[in-house]
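Customer escalation, tier 2.

The customer says the design service returned an amino acid string that "doesn't look like it belongs to this structure." They asked us to rerun it and document both sides in this ticket. The original structure tokens are below, unchanged.
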């Protein structure tokens, strides 16, 4: 079953970096996943996230307020 990945952020440089890291991992490792960029503050607030960027995998917040490494994203996607 494909993973559902959401990147919560308003478009700041950290948010863009996280999007690139996640996209690179999904492409490089052929992960079956859909990636959605969520920039609407009301939708971000639904996750009770106060610090962006945030990485949400299958509706679980996995990372907040920082850009993860590719290895970290891969490990999260493989759990």
């Amino acid at each position: 079953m494909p993973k559902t990945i959401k990147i919560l952020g308003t478009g700041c440089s950290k948010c863009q970096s996280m999007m690139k890291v996640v996209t690179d991992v999904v492409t490089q490792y052929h992960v079956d996943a859909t990636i959605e960029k969520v920039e609407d503050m009301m939708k971000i607030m639904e996750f009770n996230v106060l610090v962006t960027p945030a990485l949400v995998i299958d509706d679980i917040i996995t990372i907040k307020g920082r850009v993860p490494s590719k290895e970290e994203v891969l490990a999260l996607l493989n759990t």
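Tier 2 assessment: The sequence is consistent with the input. DSSP finds three helices and four strands in the chain. Residues 23 and 71 are 13 Å apart (CA to CA). Sent an explanation to the customer and offered a walkthrough call.
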